[in-house]
């Protein structure tokens, strides 16, 4: 009799052990937490590092500053004319500083993503020559936008590597970067951290979501008109830079390169 009772207790213990394990392996973590290899929710490296199953896993195998070396950056900017404004403005360190303010960028970045990003930087800025749109006209103020009202006398033409344009983009981007770009849009051309920050803001919102579809999809995300046959020269230039940087960084360029 006593033995049967003991056996029942043993069974209950065994059952609760298994159900606990099963439950922890289910891992219905909140979206801001990582599900660890063993199925527990948490946020530090034990959960988000290697073996992480879901959530904001830190998948990057390599720190960003080992991918974007000074040599890699200099090889690009050295091709810009000495009279370029960008030559006295953009630096490799300012790119790294800006990237570090986007933890989800640095956590997942790969060599192929850097080849992609810098191919577009190179094309958009002409090897980091330009820091703002050339020959802009108009104030790019959408007066109907109540959330991000234009400041008196300020102009929201294209600035930064990806030409942040319009008050509502300056407003939304500034909010993420923690700088008031509506009242001081010229921060984008006076502080290189902010300048690269605007480019990464655009990248995270509009380009990274299509990154896995191949280089062509990233061209479309940046300039849909080029892909509609309006500027095959520009498309080809972007692809040429991309292949070059993939080669320099030692990665395959992948499928679906054109758009
Ligand atoms: C650099 O710019 C100057 C002034 O615009 C121009 O005269 C010169 O030819 C340019 N040099 C190169 C290598 O493009
Ligand atoms: C971070 O990036 C990964 C991969 O691109 C994505 O799945 C995840 O939702 C992102 N997390 C946040 C908080 O944006
Ligand atoms: C850029 O960011 C770095 C790191 O946060 C900082 O030390 C540096 O002063 C910043 N540069 C400017 C011009 O704000």
UniProtKB/TrEMBL annotation:
<dbReference type="GO" id="GO:0004568">
    <property type="term" value="F:chitinase activity"/>
</dbReference>
<keyword id="KW-0147">Chitin-binding</keyword>
<feature type="domain" description="Chitin-binding type-1">
    <location>
        <begin position="24"/>
        <end position="59"/>
    </location>
</feature>
<dbReference type="InterPro" id="IPR023346">
    <property type="entry name" value="Lysozyme-like_dom_sf"/>
</dbReference>
<keyword id="KW-1015">Disulfide bond</keyword>
<dbReference type="GO" id="GO:0008061">
    <property type="term" value="F:chitin binding"/>
</dbReference>
<feature type="disulfide bond">
    <location>
        <begin position="227"/>
        <end position="259"/>
    </location>
</feature>
<dbReference type="Pfam" id="PF00182">
    <property type="entry name" value="Glyco_hydro_19"/>
</dbReference>
<dbReference type="InterPro" id="IPR001002">
    <property type="entry name" value="Chitin-bd_1"/>
</dbReference>
<dbReference type="InterPro" id="IPR016283">
    <property type="entry name" value="Glyco_hydro_19"/>
</dbReference>
<protein>
    <recommendedName>
        <fullName>Chitin-binding type-1 domain-containing protein</fullName>
    </recommendedName>
</protein>
<comment type="similarity">
    <text>Belongs to the glycosyl hydrolase 19 family. Chitinase class I subfamily.</text>
</comment>
<feature type="disulfide bond">
    <location>
        <begin position="84"/>
        <end position="129"/>
    </location>
</feature>
<dbReference type="GO" id="GO:0005975">
    <property type="term" value="P:carbohydrate metabolic process"/>
</dbReference>
<feature type="disulfide bond">
    <location>
        <begin position="34"/>
        <end position="48"/>
    </location>
</feature>
<feature type="disulfide bond">
    <location>
        <begin position="141"/>
        <end position="150"/>
    </location>
</feature>
<dbReference type="GO" id="GO:0016998">
    <property type="term" value="P:cell wall macromolecule catabolic process"/>
</dbReference>
<dbReference type="InterPro" id="IPR000726">
    <property type="entry name" value="Glyco_hydro_19_cat"/>
</dbReference>
<feature type="signal peptide">
    <location>
        <begin position="1"/>
        <end position="24"/>
    </location>
</feature>
<feature type="active site" description="Proton donor">
    <location>
        <position position="124"/>
    </location>
</feature>
<dbReference type="InterPro" id="IPR018371">
    <property type="entry name" value="Chitin-binding_1_CS"/>
</dbReference>
<keyword id="KW-0732">Signal</keyword>
<dbReference type="GO" id="GO:0006032">
    <property type="term" value="P:chitin catabolic process"/>
</dbReference>
<feature type="disulfide bond">
    <location>
        <begin position="29"/>
        <end position="41"/>
    </location>
</feature>
<dbReference type="InterPro" id="IPR036861">
    <property type="entry name" value="Endochitinase-like_sf"/>
</dbReference>
<dbReference type="Pfam" id="PF00187">
    <property type="entry name" value="Chitin_bind_1"/>
</dbReference>
């Amino acid at each position: 009799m006593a033995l049967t009772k003991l056996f029942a207790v043993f069974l209950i213990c065994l059952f609760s052990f298994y159900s606990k394990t099963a439950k922890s392996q289910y891992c219905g973590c909140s979206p801001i937490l990582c599900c660890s290899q063993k199925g527990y929710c948490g946020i530090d490296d034990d959960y988000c590092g290697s073996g992480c199953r879901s959530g904001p896993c830190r998948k990057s195998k390599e720190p960003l500053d080992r991918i974007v070396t000074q040599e890699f950056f200099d090889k690009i900017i050295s091709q810009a004319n000495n009279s370029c404004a960008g030559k006295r403005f953009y630096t490799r360190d300012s790119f790294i500083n800006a990237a570090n303010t986007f933890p989800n960028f640095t956590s997942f970045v790969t060599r192929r993503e850097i080849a992609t990003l810098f191919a577009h930087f190179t094309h958009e800025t002409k090897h980091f020559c330009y820091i703002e749109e050339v020959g802009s006209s108009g104030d790019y103020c959408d007066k109907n936008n109540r959330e991000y009202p234009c400041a008196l006398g300020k102009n929201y033409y294209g600035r930064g590597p990806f030409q942040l344009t319009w008050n509502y983009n300056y407003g939304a981007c500034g909010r993420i970067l923690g700088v008031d770009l509506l009242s001081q849009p010229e921060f984008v051309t006076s502080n290189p951290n902010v300048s690269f920050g605007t480019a990464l803001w655009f990248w995270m919102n509009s380009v990274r979501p299509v990154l896995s579809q191949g280089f062509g999809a990233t061209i479309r995300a940046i300039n849909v008109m080029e892909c509609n046959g309006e500027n095959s020269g520009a498309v080809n230039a972007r692809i040429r830079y991309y292949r070059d940087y993939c080669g320099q960084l030692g990665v395959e360029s992948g499928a679906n390169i054109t758009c």
